[in-house]
């Protein structure tokens, strides 16, 4: 398995897609029930293959990720070959940017001496999706990139 198995809730949400996946392998509903009871290891393998297919489809479309901690924000823009990072670090332990008040403070005090902005870029490995998945495993979430684009304009003024 390349990624992680989808959760029970995710599999329930993708119920119809899973039925289509089984049908593409000529597995009927009755055969699936039989596989689950008589060959649970085969059922587990099918769930793993389906999970990887779903992850690949999702990861192929990712262009932006965000990761917040109490005093740092990591904003990623991902192309086919590179990952660009804008990092915001608040050097004030009293400010927690994961809270509404802390985030509002950051918005109002972006040019404060306690706020540092960093940028970086690096080439992706041959397996772009695995690189993205590693960031998601570390807590990053997929976004549309509005925050990255905002900070990109700030940094490149």
UniProtKB/TrEMBL annotation:
It comes from the Bacteria. Pfam families: DUF6495. This is Histidyl-tRNA synthetase. The lineage of its organism: Bacteria, Pseudomonadati, Bacteroidota, Flavobacteriia, Flavobacteriales.
